[in-house]
Amino acid sequence: MLIKNGNVITENEILKGFDVLIEGDEIVKIGKDLSGIEVIDASGKYVMPGLIDIHTHGGFGGDFSDATIDSYDKALSFHSKNGTTSLLTSSVTAPVEDILKLIDMTRRYKAKENPICRVLGAHIEGPFISVKNKGAQKEEYLRRPADGYDFISKNVDVIKTITVSTELPGMADMIKELKSLGVVVAGGHDDGKEEEIYPAIDAGLSLCTHWYCAMSTARVENGKRSAGLMEIGLTDDRLTLELLADNHHIIPQLLKMAYKMKGADKLVLVSDCLRAGGQPKDGRVYTLGRENDTEATKFIVDLGVARLLDGTRFAGSITPLGVMLKNVTGEGIPLVDAVKMASITPARVIGVDELYGSIAEGKKADIYIADAELNPEMTIVNGKIVES
Ligand SMILES: [Zn+2]
User: Fold this and answer.
1) Predicted confidence (pLDDT) per residue in 158-191, tens digit
2) What pTM does this model have?
3) Does the domain spanning 1-49+359-388 belong to CATH 1.10.287.990?
4) Rounded to the nearest whole angstrom, what is the distance from the C-alpha of residue 57 to the centroid of ligand 1?
5) Residue 253 phi/psi, 5° resolution?
6) How far is the CA of 72 from the centre of ligand 1 (A)?
7) According to CATH, where is 2.30.40.10 located in the chain?
8) Which bin fits 268, alpha (ψ -120 to 50), beta or left (φ > 0)?
9) What is the pLDDT of residue 23?
């Protein structure tokens, strides 16, 4: 396959009018006037690495927590249509047996050879989170390290990341153990204080889950002000921040603050997209997490974001990464950096950057082609066109 004459976005620049030559599933050459078969004319279009979403729950009506082939296929199709070529399936706080179902289905999809969107593993969101900042997650299913986390340690072939709250007793030891098993530990839905957050970072915590949303912040206690994860996330270079850049959870001022302080190497765009992504926004009620869970939290979509029925909180987004690129560049962030935040930076966070995350010779041919306004044109996974 030869992608001709596109504006090719590499890690650090846009190469105008360049060709990308693909052989099999690999990018073999980037240059001018290359020759090859199966030519795709990309004149006037952007040719960028396939986007990598390390925090998403679903789309097109399917939630990964449903743990069904139908829901996985729907959700993967939604993200693939919008330029995402790899993702982690995110769980919600739920009974352990339900989380294990998501892990098992994720394992099956991870093994697929020619997917429409790669499933690289799972992100376990909860149940080791705080009551105070549980957000839309269910309180009765919350756990502490002492309640046991074997179901995490025994499934590290699938689990790439986990979101935890640092103030839970025993958390620093749990972080140390999970990190040693290769799991990336993120802080979020937390109620941590300085004296709990810094030891957690020392133990290996390296990511902030949807930074600024459902997160501890500076507070005064006993006459002393101390920082929360929100401020420590911005100021500690060991932490990378997830940005839910749907213009609702992260508004332009927050985006600019994070970008100025962290830069594109320490920021990751995440969709945190719920099953309502790509679905009608006509006031219908959706389920957060597993569809047939009668106890599950419900939400509606109103004014471009998922909200709990009483309107008090956001429940997640309906915005895929491809649309977030428009949001972010619309606020003046250079396109190269916006793409970086949705490709090579997340690839580095989960340790898959040798194969994925940039257009470079020797990397897997996962490519997203968008028009000059960043609307989706074509998605290529493993050297095969999966959406056009
Ligand atoms: Zn989430």
Assistant:
1) 999 999 999 999 999 999 999 999 999 999 999 9
2) 0.97
3) no
4) 6
5) -65, -40
6) 16
7) 1-49+359-388
8) beta
9) 98
